[in-house]
Design a protein that fits this description.
The structure is a homodimer. Chain A is an alpha/beta fold. Chain A contains 14 helices and 17 strands. In chain A, strands 7, 8, 9, 10, 11, 12, 13, 14, 15, 16 and 17 form an eleven-stranded mixed beta sheet that branches. Chain A has a six-stranded parallel beta sheet with strand order 3-2-1-4-5-6, with helices on both faces. Chains A and B meet through helix 1, helix 5, strand 12 and helix 11 of A and helix 1, helix 5, strand 12 and helix 11 of B. Strand 12 of chain A pairs antiparallel with strand 12 of chain B.
């Protein structure tokens, strides 16, 4: 008899990985009791007895024998319906749905408290790297100053092809799609939303504050041009898509997702290909770096397995930091030093730079380097969305300390 | 009123760090009630009210108001006396004493069970890097295959001066002592014992098996010569002091501490200076890399703080893996590929190599490269201890997979 009786929602890449990982992890003593899928007739890469597969979610939700629901479906709305229904019924859930969790975390926390039931989701951020659990349990004090990292494997794979293998961006993007590192519609990854959702979840466990997606500056890599790539190469830096949450003072913090010039001396410089890497900086321990496979069927499934076993041993997130007496406030009132490249759009006239430090003009391409408030980048976002414009951040926070 | 009322044993580098860290971490709500030291009259770098300092351990052990003992003294025998006495009295303990823990872990686990009391010691392995907690809680299943890393900052600092800064070994050693990275008697660090004790603790939480120090091959870097350094440089590799525990099959594992040739493609190649780096390899998540400050006053103290807060929230090690149905057996019956350098000692005649693959002979220095059983390295240890002999391991396990 198994201790953990799983009702699994979703049998895509991650769902199949979970079936395989559970089979390998004998001491976990877990068993998949039933799997709910959208199309039971679809051919799968794993063999499961036919009677275990259903299209009716209530065959799982109503089954008193199932003591844990694992939810790894792609549709965030359906995922929220299923997870909130399960929590209301007092059924614990392990989920890997970052979009759903990032959008609904305050409600999901409330549901956990009201129904005295646990929701774990370490797999939702950085796959197999145990970021959430460590932020919640180990970096569980106010020494934490910053979490910064490469949270999206697809965009990092593309940028890595460009900067380490000298491939043109378009070719690298196509290779990523062909290899399955990026979706056929890659905008979720390359426009920074995948990183954003992970950053939102990380911030709840890092600083005890939930910030809604719409309030966070998120800018991806899809406008990058050969000019930008050459500019970075000449300066011997790489452009990487970086997500960060940074404490500015005891009572203030900021967060955003944005391409960044990364110098060789920084830990994230060497996070290549589809890997993820996270730097956790604190007041006494300086920088810690965690590195590993951020996505993929088995790495994500192994993280789900860790959460399943942790739940079985009574573990739950306590969201301790949300109850701190001096929870810091989110602000976008901070100056960033940025590079903005443009051709037709009169960027220096449209964006309210506090200071322009460099200006390059040519017949086809121009750029400015200057300081601008993050709040103004959000206010004048339309300018940055024009197809001839691309913005890259210089890492300015704690420049003297930075690695 | 504070929630955590600490009785602190030891006010050396780490103890002072704890006083400082507790002052910074306001939300931890901890207070140092009393500190026991060997010499109360000694001048300290932290200011504590005089009445808080005592030389009598019972002023802490008998104080009903103290709800947590933090033990960071240097003497392992005294540490064991204090910690076991505290556990017998049902007082929970956070300890950073790796030697004491590695030597007495079976008894300490028994004392925890018998007295239903918790002992946490994440700081004892790799300072601020949360290795123990992650092995215990996150990599808490039988997917784990290997933990390998640079666990000692002093020896790594010395080797880093040699390989990255072209300093002679003797000068590097002296610099390490001058900077406080190594003790005046540096043998504990450079002969591998510090790494060994950490590896023993790691193995209990990685695989659920305790192996006594005397049963583990431990060989340090003190015999390294310019010849070895040049040999490594010519091959474009670094020599690093590596501790590893490796599953060989479902039912077998091995472990040892030994210098190793590390190629550029491996994660630990870039662990330089006084840093520690640990690679955790598993069946589904491949390799995860954790990197950070492994020692020092504040990094170690921040790890102690994490354990203090974790204890306050009810956390304790469950040693789950020790109860698995198929705990693997320790073996030294495995062939290693090694380089052995010598001058007078007739190494090829004295060591029972299974195969010699390369042999270099000159007037002053010779070496052989060949395969030899780990058990034979232990049996003929005396040969390796001769002053003209030095051995370096080639990383052979899972060569195809290795990074």
């Amino acid at each position: 008899m198994s201790d953990i009786k799983v009702g699994l929602f979703g049998l895509g890449t991650v769902g199949e990985g979970i079936v395989n990982v559970i089979a390998k992890a004998r001491n976990a003593n877990a068993e998949i009791k039933r799997v709910c899928v959208r199309d039971a007739s679809k051919k799968r890469n794993v063999t499961l007895p036919k009677e275990k597969i259903t299209e009716d979610r209530y065959e799982i939700l109503d089954d008193p024998d199932i003591n844990l629901i694992v939810e790894v479906i792609n549709d965030p709305d359906a995922a929220f319906e299923i997870v909130s229904e399960a929590l209301k019924r007092g059924i614990p859930v392990v989920s890997g749905s970052k979009t759903m969790i990032a959008r609904h975390l305050p409600e999901l926390i409330k549901l956990q408290h009201e129904n005295n039931v646990s929701l774990l989701y370490d797999a939702s951020s950085c796959g197999s790297i145990p970021v959430i659990r460590n932020l919640e349990e180990y970096y569980d004090n106010d020494l934490l100053l910053e979490v910064k990292g490469i949270l999206n494997g697809s965009s990092n794979y593309i940028l890595s092809r460009v900067f380490d293998h000298n491939e043109p961006y378009e070719k690298a993007l196509q290779t990523a799609i062909d290899l399955g590192f990026a979706e056929a519609d890659p905008s979720f990854d390359i426009d920074g939303y995948d990183s954003l959702y992970k950053l939102i979840i990380i911030t709840v466990h890092a600083l005890g504050v939930y910030v809604a997606p719409k309030d966070i500056f998120t800018y991806g890599i899809s406008h990058i041009s050969d000019f930008d790539i050459n500019y970075a190469r000449e300066k011997r830096v790489k452009i990487k898509l970086v997500a960060q949450v940074v404490k500015l003072a005891d009572n203030k913090f900021t967060m955003f997702v944005m391409p960044e010039f990364v110098t060789k001396s920084r830990y994230i410089y060497s996070v290549d290909d589809e890997y993820n890497g996270v730097v956790i900086r604190g007041e006494c321990y300086d920088r810690q770096f965690m590195f590993g496979k951020g996505a993929g069927s088995l790495p994500t499934a192994s993280s789900i397995l860790s959460d399943m076993v942790a739940h079985h041993h009574g573990y739950r997130y306590e969201y301790k930091k949300m109850g701190y007496s001096d929870v810091p406030q989110y602000t976008t009132d901070i100056l960033l030093k940025v590079y903005v490249r443009f051709s037709e759009t009169p960027v220096p006239e449209l964006l309210p730079f506090a200071e322009i430090q460099e200006r390059y003009v040519s017949k086809s391409v121009n750029y400015v380097i200057g300081e601008i408030a993050l709040s103004d980048l959000m206010k004048f976002r339309g300018v940055l969305d024009r197809p001839d414009v691309f913005i890259v951040n210089f890492s300015r926070f704690f420049e003297d300390l930075d690695q």
